Every structure is written in structure tokens, then in C-alpha cells.
Amino acid sequence: MTQPIFELSHEECVELLDTEVVGRVAVHTRLGTRIVPVNYSVVDDTIVWRITPNSELATHGPGVEGVFEVDHVDHDLRQGWSVIAYGVLEFVDDLQEVLSIRDADDPAPWAAGLRPMYMRLPYKELTGRRLGDAGRSAGVVRSGRGARRGEASAVRRTLRT
């Protein structure tokens, strides 16, 4: 069964960005385009993730146009959505900003190893598409990762204290 495709509004894109925890950052390097999966959070209209000092993103990302993509797929229903954010990648090197991110919603990496540096993409443009009814209502969105995000944030705050 095929599904209709719908363009998402800016507001729908913003809402859906905050329902997942894993996305992909694409950046062009002298070796070609690199796509890196990251655990992320959204803080003040900015997508934030943590990196290692010697990573491709740390080496090639700051000051460069970047693209962030996140999606959700329901294989059984053959529907889903995708949101893409465009902007210039930046380090977050101000201590007060880092502390604000940690208090708001620190993006907790799943991969082993230290990721002491923060990088962000203040998006200039958001686009998105939805296939079928996936993510169409706030109830559907929040019953997924949105509910887990609140729980994860509470656990991270508890572990820091």
C-alpha cells in the first residue's frame, strides 16, 4: 500500500525535532561529505550534540555549512517523517552556555568514551516531509520519544546531583 506525502510546516518540524534523540549531521570535508550519527537535544532553537576533540565534526565542522537530519519510520504501517535543518556549525565554548545546555537537556551520548565538547547548529531553515499519518498529531508524537525525553532528562539531573 502506498502512502501520500505531505510537506511539514515550520511548526511541525520544530515539534518533531524534539521527539527523537538520535540524528545525523552532514558536513563537507576535503575528503568528501561525511555523515555522522549523534545523540542530540534541542535548546533555544538550536540543535546541540557532544563530540570528541579529534572527531571529524570537531576538525571540519566549525564555521562550515552543515545539515542535520532526523526521522522516524514505522515499518509495519509504512509511514514516517523526516526533518532537515540547515545552518552553520559552531562550537559551544562559553561555559555559561554549556551549563545552560546541561541544565536544560544535556544530549547524552550513547557511544562509549568521553565527549567533552559541545557543538550546535542554529538552524536557518527547517524542512520536512511526512509519509502517511506518522507524527501527525501531538498525541502520537508525545507517546513516543517525547515522553522518554522527559524521563531521560530527569534521570540525568538526578545522576548529576
Describe the structure.
The chain has a single domain, classed as Pnp Oxidase, Chain A, CATH 2.30.110. It contains 4 helices and 8 strands, in the order βαβββαβββαβα. It has a 6-stranded antiparallel β-barrel. A hairpin with a 3-residue loop joins strand 3 and strand 4. The chain is globular. The C terminus is likely disordered.
Summarize the structure.
This protein has 161 residues and is of the alpha+beta class. The chain is 29% helix and 41% strand.
CATH topology: Pnp Oxidase, Chain A
How does the major sheet shape up? Answer: 6 strands, antiparallel, barrel
Structural class: alpha+beta
Name the beta content range: 35-45%
Number of domains: 1
Task: Summarize the topology.
Layout: E1 5-7, H1 10-17, E2 22-29, E3 32-42, E4 46-51, H2 56-60, E5 65-74, E6 79-88, E7 90-92, H3 95-105, E8 117-131, H4 138-160
Antiparallel strand pairs: 1-8, 2-3, 2-5, 3-4, 4-8, 5-6, 6-8, 7-8
List keywords for this structure.
Pnp Oxidase, Chain A, 29% helix, 8 strands, alpha+beta, six-stranded antiparallel β-barrel, 161 residues, 4 helices, disordered C terminus
